[in-house]
């Protein structure tokens, strides 16, 4: 009953705090939306490539690519001056059969565009050259065959005809998750959804409880007969409800507005994010009992939150030192990110992510227990 009273009081205070509600519900959507616009636009990058004495065949092939804008260089100025003068991402120079490309490399994304399309164009030009030589050889062979006696000519033409329709390799591409035009945002979106839920719940819950402690509200509660577990239960219940609503809003926005392709159940995505929110809530409450001011609360973010990004699955850690890969297992986002990637990208069911869910639940239970014990430093109940 006393837990319910605390629960209702916190909800009333939250409902009157418009800035907190905006931070919980609007801020994650704005950040996700901005990242979508920025990272999605990178798939349409075009780079300026300077060419000097380059063969017409290669120029013709490069012009077919809409991601490359060619600039013909005819002056005798240095490469660095031409790169700067014409705002080039790279300059391609040919001497006899040798191609030399110099990259500005101030923007590595533009360098990547030039590299990809230059290799593609050179390969296609070489293939066309080989095909031309083959056709020429075939014409010469045909003229030789025609000069042979009728019997021998018909025998050779019969054998060549049977091989003309021989099986040849063909390649068709299919994508389980996303498509050929998938952007960086598509790759990291599953983890971003979970991380923003985690971060904002941690921030709001921690700062709010710290404010109640510094203003004396928590102190008055601790001088009453209310037990520690009832206090923590009220806070977890109130902020847990807020986290549930935030999770629903963020997940629906990400999937139905931003169009994140999900192969798994939306209910599983909700469940994973709710567990992450519960862990973040418990962690925020714990940190607030250790901090003596809002500034100290913010100081915990580089220690507890920033590392979560690196070990959340947003980056490939397969080549990292084995010690650091093991170290990643102490962070809740490691399990949350793993579960979200499996569900959204691979269509995994609850039987595939059960261990991740159990570990997240264990994190929440342990942190809530530590919170209850931690209140002893203020009063023994």
TrEMBL record:
It comes from Oenococcus oeni (Leuconostoc oenos). GO terms for cellular component: plasma membrane. InterPro entries: ABC-2_transporter_component, ABC2_TM, ABC2_TM_bact-type. Its main location: membrane. It comes from the Bacteria. Keywords: Cell membrane, Membrane, Transmembrane, Transmembrane helix, Transport. It is a multi-pass membrane protein. Pfam families: ABC2_membrane_3 (PF12698). This is Multidrug ABC transporter permease. GO terms for molecular function: ABC-type transporter activity. Residues 153-378 form the ABC transmembrane type-2 domain. It is found in: Cell membrane. The keyword Cytoplasm does not apply. PANTHER family: MEMBRANE COMPONENT OF ABC TRANSPORTER YHHJ-RELATED, TRANSPORT PERMEASE PROTEIN. Belongs to the ABC-2 integral membrane protein family.
């Amino acid at each position: 009953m006393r837990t319910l009273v605390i629960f209702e009081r916190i909800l009333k205070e939250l409902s009157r705090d418009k800035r907190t509600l905006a931070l919980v519900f609007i801020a994650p959507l704005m950040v996700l939306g901005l990242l979508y616009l920025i990272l999605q636009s990178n798939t349409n990058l075009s780079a300026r490539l300077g060419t000097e004495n380059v063969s017409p065949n290669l120029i013709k092939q490069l012009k077919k690519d809409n991601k490359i804008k060619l600039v013909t260089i005819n002056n005798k100025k240095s490469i660095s001056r031409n790169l700067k003068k014409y705002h080039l991402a790279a300059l391609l120079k040919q001497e006899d059969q040798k191609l030399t490309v110099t990259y500005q490399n101030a923007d590595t994304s533009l360098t990547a565009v030039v590299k990809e399309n230059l290799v593609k164009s050179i390969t296609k030009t070489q293939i066309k050259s080989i095909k031309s030589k083959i056709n020429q050889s075939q014409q010469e062979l045909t003229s030789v065959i025609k000069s042979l006696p009728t019997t021998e000519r018909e025998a050779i033409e019969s054998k060549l005809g049977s091989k003309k329709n021989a099986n040849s390799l063909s390649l068709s591409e299919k994508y389980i998750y996303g498509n050929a035009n998938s952007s960086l945002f598509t790759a990291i979106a599953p983890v971003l959804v979970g991380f923003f839920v985690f971060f904002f719940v941690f921030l709001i819950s921690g700062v709010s409880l710290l404010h109640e402690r510094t203003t004396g509200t928590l102190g008055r509660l601790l001088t009453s007969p209310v037990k520690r577990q009832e206090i923590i239960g009220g806070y977890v219940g109130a902020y847990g409800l807020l986290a549930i609503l935030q999770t629903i809003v963020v997940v629906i926005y990400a999937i139905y507005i931003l169009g994140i392709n999900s192969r798994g159940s939306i209910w599983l995505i909700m469940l994973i994010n709710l567990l992450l929110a519960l862990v973040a809530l418990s962690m925020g409450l714990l940190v607030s009992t250790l901090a003596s001011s809002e500034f100290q609360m913010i100081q915990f973010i580089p220690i507890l939150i920033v590392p979560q990004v690196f070990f959340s699955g947003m980056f490939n850690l397969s080549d990292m030192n084995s010690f650091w890969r093991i170290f990643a297992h102490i962070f809740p986002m490691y399990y949350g990110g793993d579960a979200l990637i499996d569900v959204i990208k691979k269509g995994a069911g609850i039987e595939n992510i059960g261990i991740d869910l159990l570990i997240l639940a264990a994190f929440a239970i342990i942190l809530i227990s530590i919170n209850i014990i931690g209140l002893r430093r203020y009063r023994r109940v």
